Amino acid sequence: MPSKIIINHSENCRERSGKIRYIIIHCSKFTPEKQIEILNEYKLSTHYIISQNGEITENCPPERVAYHSGESKWLQSEEKSLNEYSIGIELEAHNLGQIAEDYSRKQLMALNRLLKKLSKEYHIRPENILGHSDIAPTRKIDPGCGFPWYKFYKKGYGIWPNMKQKHPSDNEEELLRIIGYDTENLVAARYAFCRHFFAEEVFYNADLQELLDNPYPKDFAPHRQAEYMLRLRATAQAYQIARQKKYWYMAE
Ligand SMILES: [Zn+2]
């Protein structure tokens, strides 16, 4: 476990009645101090913030609900937000996670330790570790295509496709829904998928404000359409397989 966690608790959290099932990864271009200032200003909160140098700040204890994901959906969930069931982790990333260099080694090591602790304590399934853009594709861009999902998958957190195992369907919308994406806006869901699983298709935007205001290109279609479909099918299959897995330390 991290040598120390800085406690800086927010007033903006409430009692939790749902079971914690998800961990949502976010990023922000601001330092943890500045992030807390902004969160407070908007009456929002998160559970943890990890700085570039690997320092972890706890903004809400995980037993309480923090306001980090806003309006969000996964796996056709009926509620408006995943906050009730999730833990939020913010990473300081000056370029909003658009390139791999946005995340420092120290920071990723700290995240790894935190994921290890939280997964164990709250029995979080690997497929339930997601990015904010996965659960809010029309609104959010974080943690960006520079976030090393594959590296974390190898450590047991999150899902990565095995290209040798593909789902039989070739219906794009159905495949996105199997993974968990809300496909009400298909273009946004498609782009969010690429952000997570097909970074080569994602555009770099030096204008961060414009990027935040326009989370996905409105007419986006992958350049490598055939490769996109293969990845999509393999990813849907990987999520399906992961969900069937039973873990001895988990009741359900
Ligand atoms: Zn976020």
Structure description:
It is a single chain. This protein is an alpha/beta fold and 252 residues long. The chain has one domain (5-244): Peptidoglycan recognition protein-like (Lysozyme-like, 3-Layer(aba) Sandwich), CATH 3.40.80.10. The chain is 33% helix and 13% strand. The chain is built from eight helices and eight strands. The strands form two sheets. It has a six-stranded mixed sheet. β4 (48-50) and β5 form a beta hairpin. α5 packs parallel to α8. It is globular, with a radius of gyration of 17 Å. Zinc ion is lined by residues 26, 132, 140, 142.
List keywords for this structure.
binds zinc ion; 252 residues; alpha/beta; 8 strands; two-stranded antiparallel sheet; six-stranded mixed sheet; Lysozyme-like; single chain
Brief description of this entry?
The protein is an alpha/beta fold and 252 residues long. It has a single domain, classed as 3-Layer(aba) Sandwich (Lysozyme-like). The protein is built from eight helices and eight strands, in the order E-E-E-H-E-E-E-E-H-E-H-H-H-H-H-H.
Number of helices: 8
Strand tally: 8
- First-last Cα distance: 26 Å
* CATH homology-level superfamily: Peptidoglycan recognition protein-like
Topology:
Blueprint: E1 5-7, E2 13-15, E3 22-28, H1 32-41, E4 48-50, E5 56-58, E6 64-66, E7 86-92, H2 105-122, E8 129-131, H3 132-135, H4 149-154, H5 172-179, H6 186-197, H7 208-213, H8 225-244
Parallel strand pairs: 1-5, 3-7, 3-8, 4-7
Antiparallel strand pairs: 2-6, 4-5
Helix pairs in contact: 5-8
